[in-house]
Amino acid sequence: MKNLPPMVYGAGEALIISPGTWHINANASQTTPMTYITCHFDMENLSLKSEIISNIANSVYRADSFFGQLAFKTAQDFVHISADRSLSGEEKRLKLQIIFLSFLFAIVHNGKKFKKSDTNYTDREAQLARSLATLIADDLKSDQPSLNSFEENCQRLSISTGYGHRVFRKVYGITPLHYLEDKKYSKAKRLLGSPEYTIEQVAQMVGAQNLSVFSKQFKKWSGITPSKYQKNAKNKRQVRTVKGGGYFE
User: Fold this and answer.
1) What pLDDT shows up at residue 205?
2) Which of 170, 161, 54 is nearest to 114 (CA)?
3) Could you give the C-alpha distances from 194 to 118, 225, 227, 234, 239, in angstroms and in order?
4) Which in 80, 99, 119, 144 has the greatest CB count within 10 A?
5) Using an 8 Å Cβ cutoff, are 52 and 113 in contact?
6) Strand pairing partners for 132?
7) Of 59, 67, 69, 71, whose CA–CA distance to 7 is shortest?
8) How many Cβ atoms are within 10 Å of 127's Cβ, its own excluded?
9) pLDDT tens, 182-202?
10) 248 phi/psi in degrees, rounded to 5
11) Rounded CA separation 118/96 (Å)
């Protein structure tokens, strides 16, 4: 991981890497093969995300630890489900999602086993970070967000940009830009799921420079184009009655 010392882990061991952390994975052995499983995931609840990042991320958990055993069991279940030929592709995806959500629930439910004895930020730092997050979120709630620069938000709180950036990442575990992108993606999904907005309108309402930029960014976020997402959302909204006489939204 960039700006962090190398982390060495072996069979059955696991780690969660915080969002936005540049990293590479390499086999330390020249002769023994290496197999590992990687899951990329995110969550919209910033408080929960921050808690998980602060308490668990960027630390190696040994195979005999609670987290190591939990991760290993989850990986085994992934392999088992993926190899099950009796399941369709959609059934496999659903079961894999259930397994991973159970994994996350176990982490949250057993949070005390991870919680550090002392927080690494002061009450003032926590307050400043929350104020910065509020400025970003409140701006994006507008139908025509101004998307003030992070520097402008820091100036409103009478702090330097560098200090604001360090405090925000210290408290929330992610960069202000990552937080903004999360908020923009959540808003874009919500608006695209509504029949009253065109894609062009959604692009404007999340502060995109133009439709092309928005389309590229949304595909980077979700893996599909805004039009595809909107089409899928419309199909999900249509539910036929028992007599087949219509649908509701």
Assistant:
1) 93
2) 54
3) 44, 16, 12, 8, 15
4) 99
5) no
6) none
7) 59
8) 13
9) 889 889 999 998 888 999 999
10) -130, 160
11) 35
The identity of residue 119, as a single letter, is: T
Q: How far apart are CA 68 and CA 62, in angstroms?
A: 6
**Contact criterion met (CB below 8 Å) for 121 and 170:** yes
Q: Which residue has the higher pLDDT, 235 or 163?
A: 163
Tokens of 143: 């139908």
Burial class (CB in 10 A: 0-12, 13-18, 19+), 244: exposed
Site of tokens 């400043």? 128
Is the model's pLDDT at 223 over the cut of 90? no
Least confident of 7-11, 15-19, 144-148, 236-240: 236-240
Whole-number pLDDT of residue 213: 93
- List beta partners, residue 239: 248
For the CA atoms of 13, 18, 23, 25, the dihedral, rounded to the nearest 10 degrees, stands at: 20
Sign of torsion over alpha carbons 116, 154, 208, 194:
positive
Q: Which amino acid does the sequence have at 63?
A: A
Query: What's the distance, CA 20 to chain centroid?
Result: 10
Q: Cβ neighbours of residue 222 under 8 Å, at least 6 residues apart?
A: 185, 189, 229
d(CA 191, CA 61): 40
Give mean pLDDT, residues 87-116: 87
